[in-house]
UniProtKB/TrEMBL annotation:
The keyword Nucleotide-binding does not apply. The lineage of its organism: Bacteria, Pseudomonadati, Bacteroidota, Flavobacteriia, Flavobacteriales. Keywords: Membrane, Transmembrane, Transmembrane helix. The chain crosses the membrane at residues 20-36, 42-67, 88-112, 124-147, 159-181, 233-253. It comes from the Bacteria. This is Cu-processing system permease protein.
Length: 260
């Protein structure tokens, strides 16, 4: 598995799209720090970009790599190598290269700006951690979609639809539910709906750690009461890990049963 991981990782690192991804975040970091003298304000702006862009790029990269390396994968399947090792190696290679581009692209400008001397170092670290989790989650979801759909067009369609649902439609349905059932106590429902969407969960974690939950009104107070505690942080991290591990398990399970 490690040889396949290494090959996939270096294959993507040499790709011009990885450089574009890295340079985009590098330039974004320098521009935001130039426009904002406050690191915390730059982190808030970055959050809005990362929460939407990272899942989209991870989904597209994941599904493109799977389909483009299909012939190479079939060649590996003819060798005495575990199927799980092949797909896990490819997945970790893709997710690892994307995560590295994200961390270095954002980390370099903030470190040069004096991040280690700032009080916002924990907030920035949390931003990178949630960005890394979103990369891992949506890359493996893209691999699952591609593995279940031989047709490239259908695979791309389902992948984009998944991102659209998680990033936009889910929030719309959530808000409609809150408005329709506003006469009922919805504290538990709000927490549950947030936890079961990794994008919303990541956004809420960052907002609360930046101590601007007042912008969320009553819902923010409910979230702060739960997510602001050590128990809430533990549950949040656990759910992000769960969102990562469950699709990985399905990827391994389906790859063992699928007839190639």
């Amino acid at each position: 598995m490690f040889k396949i991981l290494k090959y996939s990782f270096y294959d993507l690192i040499r790709s011009r799209w990885s450089y574009v991804y890295f340079l985009f975040y590098l330039l974004l970091g320098f521009v935001l720090l130039f426009l904002n003298n406050d690191v915390s304000k730059a982190i808030i702006t970055l959050m809005n970009v990362i929460i939407i862009l990272v899942p989209l790029i991870s989904t597209i990269f994941g599904i493109m790599y799977f389909y483009n390396s299909k012939e190479f994968t079939e060649l590996l399947l003819a060798q005495p190598v575990k199927r799980s090792s092949i797909f896990l190696g490819q997945y970790l290679g893709v997710a690892g290269s994307l995560t590295l581009s994200l961390v270095l692209g954002l980390g370099i400008p903030f470190v040069l700006y004096g991040l280690f001397k700032s009080d916002a170092i924990f907030d920035f670290s949390l931003l990178l951690v949630t960005g890394a989790f979103l990369t891992l989650i949506f890359t493996v979801l893209a691999f699952n979609i591609a593995l279940s759909n031989e047709n490239k067009i259908k695979g791309f369609g389902y992948a984009v639809l998944l991102w659209l649902f998680m990033a936009v439609i889910y929030d719309g349905l959530f808000l409609m539910s809150l408005i329709i059932f506003k006469q009922y106590p919805l504290d538990s429902f709000s927490l549950g709906a947030t936890i079961f969407n990794p994008i919303d969960l990541s956004r809420t974690l960052i907002l609360l750690k930046l101590d601007i939950s007042a912008l969320l009104g009553y819902t923010g107070a409910v979230f702060k009461k739960f997510f602001g505690t050590d128990q809430g942080l533990f549950v949040s991290i656990f759910m992000l890990i769960f969102w990562t591990v469950l699709p990985i398990w399905r990827l391994v399970f389906v790859s063992r049963k699928k007839d190639f």
